[in-house]
Structure formats: structure tokens, C-alpha cells
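Risk mitigation, structural track. In case the binding assays with phenylalanine fail to produce interpretable data, a predicted complex structure has been prepared as a fallback.
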Amino acid sequence: MTQTSPEAIVQEAQAAVAAAADLTALDALRVHYLGKKGVLTEQLKSLGSATPEERKTLGQALNVAKDAISSAIDARHGVLNLSAINARLESERVDVTLAPRHESVGRIHPVTQVIEEITAIFAAQGFSVKQGPEIEDDFHNFSALNIPPEHPARQMHDTFYLVGEEGQPKPVLRTHTSPVQIRTMVAQKPPLRIIAPGSTFRCDSDLTHTPMFHQIEGLVIDKAIHMGHLKGCIIDFVKAFFGVDDVPVRFRSSFFPFTEPSAEVDIGCSREKGELKIGAGKDWLEIMGCGMVHPNVLRNCGIDPDEYQGFAFGLGVERMAMLKYGIPDLRTFFDADIRWLQHYGFAPLDIPALVSAYAK
Ligand code: PHE
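Fallback model:
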């Protein structure tokens, strides 16, 4: 039997391996050369009939050939495998920025939705968003806001106190978002124009109060800011939020230790046959507290009240959501009832764009 030399087999195999177009072709070559009935295996079997001398040299040469062919196959396997993976990645590519084709099952909670809507409106008025901690110290939650210890206003707040250090005022769960005013004024120089959405806590629970609820604080500090700016800002906001152009807005004199003068904002509404409608009508609904930042508060933050003035406001998110979307009961917001969320929740893509909510 005339046999091709091991070197010639290696050469032929290397050329074939280099030309293999895909992993299937490469596997066929492996079987052809190295498989149980492959070219090299057959030659190794034929060694049995060779002389001991031939057996030694040919045996060695065949083993060298086997190693050479398998490493050529391994190398080519690496290359082909990588391009197979790349081809698959290319063909199975998903554009995650595309809109989903199926309405997804999850719902956005009305609190999240309303915070987004309100943020969009104030962002269009040039406000930026600030956040502060939910566990506050006495200074930021009370004393810097012109509420000294023993001040009766502390009783207005049904505060949750935490365990603190001996001899120090106890830390609290913040009772309002107003401490973010203080943190902002201490950290940044005016002019300032911020809103601060977030959770707030009061030890109170009945039909219209939950121990945790959400507020959005607003703060504007600049030179020559007056009550007219406050009124314009709030009236524009109310119109944009409720999408009603002629909604009457009333500023009713009130008291907060951190603003002077202070006011509560009422919007006009009508209640006919149990149906509440925002807009001109006989009734009024209170929606927020506001006022001109008290000079003591500015001083507590290192701002000279003779140079800078400003206004602040604070509104309850759940209340705004109830009024806009006709949700009758506050406590249901936090029942985590999936049927409620399916009914009152929003499709994920309903989150308003910054401009459209304001342009409405
Ligand atoms: N912090 C007040 C409250 O929780 C609301 C408020 C904020 C009033 C800012 C005036 C100015 O009741």
C-alpha cells in the first residue's frame, strides 16, 4: 500500500482547515483526519505490520502530525466560533429604545405620576429638583425654620421622634419637606429656584391622614422677589396642573413660622350631585401653604435678608392626585391593592415629557 507521508497529510489538512468556512465544515475535517476511521488513525493502525524500526520513526512522525492537525483545528475553531457569536449577536439584536409593542402589565402609582407631572411644570419654569434625608435633625426640621424648642408650632406636627444621643435633640422623621429649603440655602448661594419632592411623616392616621405621605416643597430666593412673583408662579402652576384655564385661585391669610406673610392657596370648584369639578363654582378647596421666606430663616442660613428675599410653598402630593384623578380615599394609596393600582395607575409611557405637560 502506498501511503502519503505524515508531513504531506499535515500540509493538506492545514490548507483544508484554513479554508473551512464554518464550524460544521471544520468538524467534518476533524472527523476526516482524527476520527476513529480518520486518515491518521488508519495509518496508526497500519503500524502493526511495519518493522520495529519503521514503527518507531513513523509512529513519532504520525504523533507529531496529529498534534499539528489538532492545534490547527483548535485555532480555526476559535476564529469561527467568535464570528458565529458575532453573527448571532447581530441577528438577535434588540433596540431597547423602541416603544414596546404590547401594553405592559405594570402600572405607575398615582403618587409617582403626579410628582412627575408637577416636576415637569416647575422644570419648565426654570426650577431644579433637590432632595434631602428622611431622617432629619432638629436644626433642619425645626429650629432653622424659625420653630424654636417649646414653640407651639411643634405641636402642629405630630412628630415621630427617634432615639438619639444623650443630651442632644432627638432625630426625627421629617414632618415636612421644608428642611430641604434649609439644606439648599446653606449649601448654595442665591439666586435659587428649586423644588423638593419626597416622603414626609406624621404620627396621625384617620380618613384623611396617613403616617407617611408626600409633599413637594418650592423655594425661590433672589433680589427684589415679592408676593406678586409668588402669586404668578402658583397661578400658572395650578392652570397647567389641572389643565383648566379659568380656575379661580385665592390666597387666604394664614400662619407658618417660616414664612411672613403666609397664605393658604384655595382653588375654585363646584360640587354638584356629589361630583367635584375644578374651576369656577361656589366652593373652595385648599391645596397648599405658601408665603415669603421669613427673614430669620434667611439669617439662619447665612443669607442677608436686606439683600435677598424669596418665597416658599409646600403642597401635598396625594391631595393633588385625589383632586385631579378623582381618587376618593387617601388610605387606599398605601393599601398595595393590585386592583386599585390597575384602576388608578398609569401606563409606564404616560410619564409626561417636560414640555407637553406645561404646554397643555
Ligand atoms: N411645610 C408646610 C407644611 O408642611 C408647608 C409650607 C411650605 C408652607 C412652605 C409655607 C411654605 O405644612
